[in-house]
Amino acid sequence: MKNVKKHLLVTVLPFLVVACGPKWKEAEKEGYKLVENTDGATLGYAPESGIQILTVDRLAFKDLNKNGTLDPYEDWRLSVEERAADLASKMSVEQIAGLMLYSAHQSIPGGGNRFFGPVTYNGKPFEESGAKASDLSDAQKIFLKDDNLRHVLITSVQTPGVAAQWNNNAQAFVEGIGMGIPVNTSSDPRHGSDSYAEFNAGAGGRISMWPSSLGIAASFDPALMQQFGEIASKEYRALGIATALSPQIDLATEPRWSRFDGTMGEDPKLATDMARAYVDGFQSSDDGGWGYQSVNAMVKHWPGGGPEEGGRDAHFGYGAYAVYPGNNLKDHLKPFTEGAFKLKGATGMASAVMPYYTISTNRDTVNGENVGNSYNKYLITNLLRDKYGYDGVVCTDWGITRDVSSVYVFEGKPWGVEHLSVAERHYKIIEAGCDQFGGNNDMDPVIEAYQMGVKEHGEEYMRKRFEVSAVRLLKNIFRTNLFENPYLDVAATEATVGKPEFMAAGYQAQLRSVVMLKNQGNVLPMKEKKKVYVPQRFVASSKNWFGIATPERNEVPFNMDVIIKYYDVVEDPSAADFALVGIENPNGGVGYEVSDNEKGGNGYVPISLQYGPYTATYARDSSLAGGSPMEDFTNRTYKEKSFLASNTTDLDLVKDTKKIMGDKPVVVLVRVSKPMVFAEIEPYASAILVQMGVQDQALMDLVSGKVEPSALLPFQMPADMKTVELQFEDVPRDMEPYIDAESNAYDFAFGLNWGGVINDDRVKNYK
User: Which stretch of DSSP H or E encloses residue 117?
Assistant: First the structure.
């Protein structure tokens, strides 16, 4: 009997130990530890942060607030809603105020500029500091620790590996602070194409390259947009990015707007379907819901930034007003309310919304306020939240609480509330129903705003109001599993970002985004190894939004190493079989000139969509909006004023090339960022292709016939500037389209393939 008992002890005890022991195991990674629960979440933590792993019900949890007990917000078994509510209730007002901040633009490593000041590491510029590219800057340490900021906007990164290591450094830094809330990193779109780069199906890159959103929209295929979102989100998460400051789903009803190329076109139905597909692609993890591969989508810009009066942009005071001569706000809401807020996937709706800088003139039917959208309680609370039931994060566009000195400088954008103090602007934004301040690193004005609310409404009201925003913000961090494991395997990042299959998918999308407008006499496809003449393009000197100047230059418009793989390049036009001309759409200005103001004018000039001289004969006698406190007039008309595009030499290039080529084909490839008047160049071109951000190699694959053109115009090309002036800024597809020599109208949903005008199911569905 003793032997039997001894045998039972020997055989049963090990089983009991295994059965009752922890159901998790820990592994050492580079710079952090990884804890895998057998039946649950994978956790990541940095030993130097000082947090411990708690074992409850044999499962592992992170003790983020270091109190030795499992709090509801630390329990990954609970719902996101329960966890966010618990954490918000435990946070101090200062911690919530920091959560409501979204950082100014951060580059890795930081170099500094005149807008955000110098960037230092241990008190020295990066180059002199001895710091690693992945180290946190002095300013980052301050706003993460002292200001409790947890939302960081990343711009350029040195390499994917550096981005991953910076992420790990930032997460380790905040993990040991306060409640252990992780950093939620975001990015503006970063998947644009390098035209000069070559594509190799077996090679990777820094990140996959795709056409612009407008280019993908030209495919008229929402499935392609969703594929982009699915791939881009994987690359984002590999870089440590859990929020996309995109998509830009403004309805592009104003053809002169400088941000036209960031949109999905001017048609409400197409833009709505594309918006839905984009958000579904970004937010859905592999199982269709929220998870480790999900990226929060911040759709912009509510309630639609497209109808800018005269096409002037609201980054400046001269473009502060959106106008609605067609009384057509409803179409601008559709990409949001019927697209991004009604997803097919399990995430339901876009998790965040960004209003635009604009004053949506006379749209406030409750209070009658004409103030910037983020300041407008009707637009944010009555319309977005109450009418359309949106309870996600609303984050202002960047820098709207800062001061500004004139309508033509790139400074703050407090349109309609210029008279308020910085703290008063924060308070008005909170009262309007917003949750977060874009581009603000400083907690102090948010605390001041809180105190204003306490004085007006009492402590209980303001504490509850702050917790409402905190819950919304925290849910987006919980949903993407950052509380469980915010750390990255650097080697996995380097293997994921820009891997060959992602590069190949982006390249295929590029091929599907180029629209063929003209193919006279079926000159295309042009057989390979023919002789081609490529004239140089003159680029005039210019200044960007930030005032940085680019000197004039002559340039070859293509990567000739790519061209010579398809054709024999000749210097003598008479020896060529055809000419290949690369140009860009007219650069018709921004709609304001300081020189006009200095000469006694009001400063307002037309934005032109043509290359040649333009006089605004058909412009409005009186503007629909005005009244900036920085101006002593309200009429911003530019009627009878003239403007000449800075790249009028592109028109000369096409004409001159046609002249020297005689009867030989002239193939014109146009990079477009907005509509343009083709009447000037179409008669001189044998074939025309328009592209919205592709590699030169993709263009050559189309020109040579390796691939057949299939894209359609996601917007109208106007017949002339008269129809541009007479159209309504808020109404889609209301221009007279250009009709070419072959009687083809360059209208919405128009495009050619080798057989002629495309008239497939896409055209029938959307046109």
Answer: none
Cα distance between residue 285 and residue 533, in whole Å:
49
Query: What is the rounded distance in angstroms from the CA atom of residue 550 to the CA atom of residue 543?
Result: 6
Separation CA 41–CA 118 (nearest Å):
41
Contact present, 509 and 637 (Cβ < 8 Å): no
Give tens-digit pLDDT for 6-30.
444 444 434 444 456 899 999 999 9
Query: What is the rounded average pLDDT of the residues 616-629?
Result: 98
Residue 20 makes CB contacts below 8 A (sequence gap 6+) with 58
Please, what are the domains in the chain? 99-496 (3.20.20.300), 506-587+647-766 (3.40.50.1700)
For 152, phi then psi, to 5°, come to -120, 130
- Where in the sequence numbering do the catalytic residues fall? 397
Residue 272 φ then ψ, to 5° = -65, -45
Closest by CA to 278, choosing from 218, 352, 227, is: 227
DSSP assignment of 271-333, as one string?
HHHHHHHHHHHHH--TTSSSSTT--EEEEEEET-S--BGGG--TTSGGG-EE--TT--HHHHH
Q: Where are the alpha helices (DSSP H) in 534-618?
A: 560-563, 594-598
What is the pTM assigned to this prediction? 0.95
262-273, pLDDT tens digit by residue? 999 999 999 999
* 486-525 residue pLDDT tens: 999 999 999 999 999 999 999 999 999 999 999 999 999 9
Residues 320, 308: Cα–Cα separation, whole Å: 8
SS3 55: strand
What pLDDT does 116 receive? 57
Q: How confident is the model at residue 133 (pLDDT cuts 50, 70, 90)?
A: very high
With residue 167 as reference, give the H or E element that holds it. helix 160-175
